[in-house]
Design goal:
Blueprint (H helix, E strand, L loop, with lengths): L1 H12 L4 E4 L4 E4 L24 E2 L2 E9 L10 H20 L3 E6 L9 H11 L1 H8 L5 E7 L8 E8 L10 H11 L5 E4 L7 H13 L8 H4 L8 E3 L16 E2 L3 H4 L6 H7 L4 E7 L8 E8 L3 H9 L8 E9 L2 E11 L6 H14 L2 H20 L13
Parallel strand pairs: 10-12
Antiparallel strand pairs: 1-2, 3-4, 4-11, 4-14, 5-7, 5-8, 6-7, 6-9, 11-12, 13-14
Helix pairs in contact: 1-10, 2-6, 9-12
Length: 397
């Protein structure tokens, strides 16, 4: 049905080779040779460099972008965030790590009633960090993985360590077993020297593969429904910050500071809403600036792709136009189209947004979006239930 709607929209607007990307929730051309109408995008940016309307030498327009969840467990957002973090980690490991080893920490299932209780106990007490401190390890980076082969989603940690600062230049396994198994009664561990590592880049790629690739069975239900934050990776203090503005650009907000921080929402709800709504950004370009500045002004209960389909089919108008942009991000280069509203000035932004919201509401799109989000949430949880079943009994999606 989606393909038929897109074909009808393309015929109505005489657009050639229009493709609807389900992951991105947007329409795009499959011919990258065509020049971009909206102007070329700077590397790693998502905003046009040449907005349409110009007022007093300051271009102003409203642009609709997909509202992303930015969850590590999201098939769309997780790998992009992991690749961004991997590049930062490679540069730091190359300088700090001299003698690489891989340490794996496992959990004794007899000591805990459930995988969630095991993870909560080890994380709250900081046992992994304490163990590395007792071993004299100063530089490390760990990644959390959930056991799939035996079911249940039991956690274990893969830790890339630098054993240069350890006594004698090597990890004392006797001390490690003494703390992890005998004193704390947590489980077992395994040390691998990983001599097959060609260079630090290879080592980083090996340990971060658990972040760049989504598990075959997804993530356990207790992870997706957790009401407390779960760390999927962490580095030593010497590594510094590994996350920050990049592929998921942070926009200036006009909301009060006290309203920006919200309670922790379960990952499954954030994943279900990923890309199903639109963030409305006001773009302005000051004289002499190479890239526009973006300011968040509100949201619309419809993805940009659906707005484009409704625009081309004549369901909505409200000053909405289509502009083509050339988006360059790590690992992909696409020619895409996005909805925007040219403005006569900054004071018209809120009025244009309210008018567009009313028109979208009249089409019944917010109700369809809500139903789509609920269906996506059920699908995610149905896939996560495979952790409690033997191999070969994964629920069909």
């Amino acid at each position: 049905m989606t393909r038929a709607i897109v074909q009808a929209a393309a015929a109505a607007s005489k657009l050639e080779r229009v493709v609807y990307n389900r992951t991105e929730n947007q329409l795009s051309w499959d011919d990258p040779s065509k020049p971009a109408v909206g102007g070329r995008i700077e590397s790693g940016k998502d905003s046009v460099c040449q907005p349409k309307a110009v007022v007093g030498g300051q271009p102003v327009c409203l642009v609709m972008k997909p509202c992303r969840c930015k969850c590590r467990t999201c098939p769309g957002c997780g790998p992009l965030l992991a690749w961004e973090m991997r590049f930062k980690l490679q540069a730091k490991v190359l300088v700090l790590f001299k003698k690489l080893s891989l340490l794996t920490l496992t959990v004794d299932r007899k000591e805990f009633p459930s995988p969630e209780s095991a993870h909560r106990f080890i994380s709250d007490k900081g046992h992994a960090r304490l163990l590395l401190r007792h071993l004299g390890i100063k530089h490390y980076f760990w990644v959390l993985e959930f056991q799939q082969k035996t079911g249940g989603g039991w956690p274990h940690w893969h830790i890339l360590i630098d054993s240069t600062d350890c006594p004698g230049g090597k990890v004392d396994l006797k001390v490690a077993w003494q703390f992890w198994r005998d004193k704390w009664h947590l489980g077992g561990l395994q040390l691998s020297l990983r001599r097959e590592f060609d260079d630090p880049y290879h080592a980083v790629n090996y340990v971060t593969k658990y972040l760049t690739k989504q598990p075959d069975k997804g993530y356990p239900t207790w992870v997706l429904e957790a009401k407390k934050r779960i760390r999927f990776f962490q580095g030593s203090r010497s590594l510094g910050a590994l996350t920050g503005p990049g592929s998921c650009e942070k926009y200036e907000s006009n909301r009060p500071e006290r309203c920006r921080r919200r309670f922790m929402r379960p990952l499954v709800k954030r994943m279900a809403e990923c890309g199903q709504k639109s963030n409305v950004l006001m773009q302005t370009l000051e004289p002499g600036d190479q890239a526009p500045s973006c300011k968040f002004v509100g949201t619309i209960d419809a993805p940009p792709g659906r707005l484009l389909v409704m625009l081309e089919s004549g369901q909505i108008d409200s000053g909405l136009v289509v502009q083509r942009v050339h988006i360059e991000q790590p690992g992909r280069v696409v020619d895409a189209v996005e909805p925007c509203v040219p403005l006569g000035g900054v004071e018209d932004a809120q009025r244009a947004l309210d008018r567009l919201r009313r028109v979208v509401w009249m089409t019944g799109e917010p109700v369809r979006t809500t139903e789509q989000i609920e269906a996506r949430e059920e699908k995610i949880l149905r896939r996560a239930s495979a952790y409690g079943q033997p191999a070969g009994e994964v629920p069909l999606e």
